[in-house]
From TrEMBL:
Stated role: Catalyzes the dehydration of D-mannonate. Has no detectable activity with a panel of 70 other acid sugars (in vitro).
Family annotation (InterPro entries): D-mannonate_dehydratase-like, DgoD-like, Enolase-like_C_sf, Enolase-like_N, Enolase_C-like, MAND, Mandel_Rmase/mucon_lact_enz_CS, Mandelate_racemase_C
Required cofactor(s): Mg(2+)
Domain Mandelate racemase/muconate lactonizing enzyme C-terminal, first and last residues per copy: 129-258
Name listed for the protein in its UniProt record: mannonate dehydratase
Reactions that this protein is recorded to catalyse: D-mannonate = 2-dehydro-3-deoxy-D-gluconate + H2O
Keyword terms: Carbohydrate metabolism, Lyase, Magnesium, Metal-binding
Similarity section: Belongs to the mandelate racemase/muconate lactonizing enzyme family. GalD subfamily.
Record EC number: 4.2.1.8
Pathway: Carbohydrate metabolism; pentose and glucuronate interconversion
Family annotation (SUPFAM superfamilies): Enolase C-terminal domain-like, Enolase N-terminal domain-like
Length: 403
């Protein structure tokens, strides 16, 4: 059995900040786990270095479930994004080690491939509907079967999901939070025409997705869902903030537009009611923020019993280590729906060489033992951590609002 001899936290910023855990064993085999929590990176780095890694030394790296339970129950303080990202990093690294010891890609340890490949969605966005459609047509020509469409809102200077660079969208955009101005009324008027024009230009054979980024009330979300029904969206994401899971009942009563939520969830308890009452169609929790492969599989099994499919978060603030882990998970779970795929910058890709591939809208984790992802530590050491925050949002009268 491989005994854990060291565990170190690597903070690097190749294009953006990432926190990576590297666990080494006495057999010379090591594993990697992503621990990046966008805008709060150093909190997780400290949680790991100060409170977790000393407890790992000397343990049997094969005892993934036992170590998970030790970190979850043993902390006394359960759940929350910082704790669960730290646990996720350990869990992911241990699956990587187990795969390498077995000489098998992680998806084989999870039951093997349940499909040939993983359908991903790309992000098309633009300041205007025309620009968004132009970008979506490029994704379609590259073979994407699913495309998220976000457009600037007439009358608002800036909004979520519309980037300065149309190819790469970076959520954390400044060393102090930038302020944006929001109007729900203006936004609600802008989305139906976007979908109408998108269907005209792209046809009906491509899945179209949209992210409301936690900005609506239930009745507003119900209205948007109804308005979009004629255009058959694949999903409407984060329609309302989900602290109060019962909010989704009202949306459900009014619309058949499929609902997705959960990128900020850290545990099955955050989505228990949503899943049990079948208030959503897709659960967006992912490996790094929801307790690793072990806990995400628990969420997926529970979701499967209630006809809810997976749709893992995959923005650029989730490192290639998380992307690789998510792809092994996606390939193996029975109730896979779709995987988000925002391309990393060339700097990020160079620091994290990986085996996963993209081909005509489908991805595959590759067949290297373990996760199939590395960190080039010499290169990583050249990129120092740079403080970076997500933006904040205010209503037009100055009231603090949701980002
Ligand atoms: C998505 C997300 C992201 C988040 C970002 C926060 O759907 O990909 O909403 O854009 O805002 O990951 O760190
Ligand atoms: Mg989102």
């Amino acid at each position: 059995m491989p005994i854990i001899t060291s565990a170190k936290v690597i903070v690097t910023s190749p294009g953006r900040n990432f926190v990576t855990l590297k666990i080494e064993t006495d057999e010379g085999i090591y594993g990697l786990g992503d621990a990046t929590l966008n805008g709060r990176e150093l909190a997780v780095a400290s949680y790991l270095t100060d409170h977790v890694t000393p407890c790992l030394i000397g343990r049997d790296a094969h005892r993934i479930e036992d170590i998970w339970q030790f970190l979850y129950k043993g902390a006394y303080w359960r759940r929350g994004p910082v704790t669960m990202s730290a646990i996720a990093a350990v869990d992911t690294a241990l699956w990587d080690i187990k795969g390498k010891v077995a000489g098998l890609p992680v998806y084989q340890l999870l039951g093997g491939a349940a499909r040939e490949g993983v359908m991903v969605y790309g992000h098309a966005n633009g300041a205007t509907i025309e620009e968004t459609i132009e970008a979506a047509l490029i994704y379609q020509s590259e073979g994407y079967k699913a495309i998220r469409i976000q457009s600037g809102v007439p009358g608002l200077a800036s909004t979520y999901g519309v980037s300065k660079d149309r190819y790469f969208y970076e959520p954390a955009d400044a060393d102090l939070p930038t302020e944006n101005v929001w109007s729900t009324e203006k936004y609600l008027r802008s989305v139906p025409p976007l979908f109408e024009k998108a269907r005209e230009a792209l046809g009906w054979d491509v899945h179209l997705l949209h992210d409301a980024h936690h900005r609506l009330t239930p009745i507003e979300a119900a209205r948007l869902g109804k308005d979009l029904e004629p255009f058959r969206p694949f999903w409407l994401e984060d329609a309302v903030p989900a602290e109060n899971q019962a909010n989704f009942r009202l949306i459900r009563q009014h619309t058949t537009t499929p609902l997705a939520v959960g990128e900020i969830f850290s545990s099955v308890w955050d989505c228990k009611q949503l899943i049990e009452e079948q208030l959503i169609d897709y659960i967006r929790a992912t490996v790094v923020h929801a307790g690793g492969i072990t806990h995400l599989r628990r969420i997926a099994s529970f979701a499967d019993m209630h006809n809810v499919r997976t749709g893992c978060h995959g923005a650029t603030d989730l490192s290639p280590v998380c992307m690789a882990a998510a792809l092994h998970f996606d390939l193996s779970v029975p109730n896979f729906g779709v995987q988000e795929y925002m391309r990393h910058t060339p700097e990020t890709d160079a620091a994290f060489p990986h085996a996963y591939t993209f081909d005509r809208g489908m991805m595959h984790p590759g067949d290297k033992p373990g996760l199939g992802v590395e960190i080039d530590e010499d290169l990583a050491a050249k990129y120092e951590y740079k403080r970076a925050f997500l933006p904040v949002n205010r209503l037009e009268d100055g009231t603090m609002f949701n980002w």
